[in-house]
Amino acid sequence: MRYTGEFRRRRLPAPVLAGTCAVALLAGAVATGIAGRPPAAAAGAEVVTRPASGVWVAEGGGFGHGRGMSQWGARAAALRGRTAEQIVAFYYPRTVRKAVGNPTVRVRVGTDPELVVSPSPGLRVSWRGGRLVLPARAQVRRWKVGAYAAGLRLAYHAGHGWRWWGPRLPAAVTVVSSRPVRRVHWRDRTATDYRGTLAVSRSGRRVLVVDRLPMESYLAGVVPRESPASWPMQALRAQAIAARTYAYAAVRSPRSARYDLCDSTACQVYGGAARLRPDGTRLFGERRRTTAAVASTAGVVLLSGRRPATTEYSASNGGWSAPGGRPYLVGRRDPYRAGDPYLSWRVRVSVADLGRKFGFSRLDRLRVLRRDGHGAWGGRLLEVELTGLDGAGKPRAVTVGGGRLRRALGLRSTYFRLRAG
Q1: Fewest Cβ atoms nearer than 10 Å: which of 40, 73, 105, 290?
Q2: Alpha carbons 127 and 143: distance in angstroms, whole number
C-alpha cells in the first residue's frame, strides 16, 4: 500500500521487509508504554534544547506512516477472534465490500537497465505486426532485451560474452513462453520467476519491464511479502483485501501510461512467484497459506461511494492510527496492540550529527510547531523548527516537515518526541 511522502502511499511492511520498503520480522523492539494516552496539549510549547551531553533521546512508536490498517494490529485482532471482514471494517470504516472480478494488473518490476531471461520452451518476443521465436539451443544460457538505437535488440549469452541476435526491434515488445513462469535474472545474481507476460519498452538508454498478469495471481506474490504466511488466516485474508483494493485503485487510476503500480514499498511489495539465490535455492515467494487467503477473498475490494478506497497500511501504527484526509482513514486509538514489537521504541540521537544534516555548525534548539492531534504528545510530528548557528557563526533557523526529520534521524515513524539524553 504504498507510501506517500516519507514511505509510500501504501504502508511499510515491516513484518518481512525492512526499508516500504525491508524489516526483519520481530526485530527486537520492546512493546511497552506509549499507546493509549489521550492527545497531549498544544505542541507549540514543545521545545527541546541542546543538553550538555549533546544527545537527545527519541521516544516513539509505530513503523511506517500509520494510516489505514496496522499489519501487526490485524494480527492482534485475528488472535482475538476477529474475522477479516471485521478487521478491514475497523481499519477502513465507512467502506463497503464488492466483488470486481479478476482484472489484469500491470506491475513495473526491477530497476536493471536490461531484461535478462532464462531460455525456456516456446520463448518468443512479439510486437504489433511481428514476432520472433527464440531458438532453444543447448549452449545458450541467457537471452537479453536491451535498448539499442531508437528501439530494442536481442542478445544471447553462451558462456563467452553477449552476442547480438536477430533484427532490430521496435521500442516496445512482449516476452512470453510456454511455461507458466518466466525467470528473470538480476545484476545482484538473484533471479525472479514471474507469471503473466513481460512487456518491455525503451526508456532512454534503459528498458522498462512490466509484468502483466491477473489480479489474483499478482496478489499471490504480494501477500507473503507484506505479511508472514505463519500469521493467523484472518489477518492474511484482511491483508489480501487491503492489497487487492489498493491494486484495483491503481488499475482505475494508473501511475503511468505504461504501468499501474510498482513492485516496491513505493506502492506495495510484489515478489513474483519466487525469488531465487544465485545457487538456485528459494529466498521467498508464493506460499500455500497466503495463496489460500487470496483465494478465499477472491475479487473482494473496499469501495468508498463508487470508487475503490485508498487502502493504505503500514507495519504498525504505534497504538494510534494517523488521519489520512479521507473519511475512511481516521486518526483514533487502536485497541489491537498485543504482540506488536514496534509499539514502543527509543533511539539515541546525536544533536551535532542532526545539525550537520541541516547546515548547522551548532544546533541549539528544536521546537515542535505542529502535530496531528492523535495520540501521545499530541500525535505525529508534522512540522518543527530548528535553530542554532550556521558555518559562519550567524544565527540560523530552519523549518522542516516531520517526515524529513524522521528520515534525518533514521527513525521508524513520525510518531515520537525528543527529550534530553
Answers
A1: 40
A2: 17
Residue 61 confidence (pLDDT): 98
Q: Work out the end-to-end distance of the chain between its first and last CA atoms, rounded to an integer number of angstroms.
A: 35
- Residue 189: the pLDDT is 96
Task: With beta carbons less than 8 A apart as the criterion, state whether 408 and 357 touch.
Answer: yes
CB count, 10 Å around CB of 103? 15
Residue 255 near residue 261 (C-beta atoms within 8 A): yes
The one-letter amino acid code at 243 reads A
E strand or H helix at 86, and its extent? helix 84-91
For residues 419 and 55, is the Cβ–Cβ distance under 8 A?
no
Q: Which residues pair with 400 in a beta bridge?
A: 384
Sheet holding 96-99, edge to edge: 96-99, 300-304, 307-308
- Say what the pLDDT of residue 388 is: 98
Query: What is the per-residue burial (b if ≥16 Cβ within 10 Å, else e) of 254-293?
Result: ebeeebbbbbbbbbbbbbbbbbbeeeeeeebbbbeebbbb
The whole-angstrom separation of Cα 16 and Cα 25 is 5
Instruction: Please list the rounded mean pLDDT of every run of 10 residues in the chain (421 residues).
Output: 38 38 33 37 74 97 98 98 98 98 98 96 94 89 94 94 94 96 97 98 96 98 98 98 98 95 96 97 97 98 97 98 97 97 97 97 97 97 98 96 97 97 82
CA 354 to CA 293: how far, in whole Å?
A: 44
Q: What is the pLDDT of residue 137?
A: 82
Burial of 136 (0-12, 13-18, 19+ CB in 10 A): exposed
Measuring CA to CA, which residue among 10, 19, 29, 17 is closest to residue 343? 29
| CA neighbor of 406 nearest in space, from 383, 375, 379 | 383
Q: How many CB atoms lie within 10 A of CB 401?
A: 17
DSSP β-ladder status, 261-262 and 104-108: parallel
How many degrees, rounded to 5, is the angle at CA 197 between CA 193 and CA 198? 75
| pLDDT computed for residue 421 by the predictor | 82
Residue 350, strand partner residues: 55
Task: Give the SS3 label for residue 249.
Answer: helix
Quick one: pLDDT at residue 45?
80
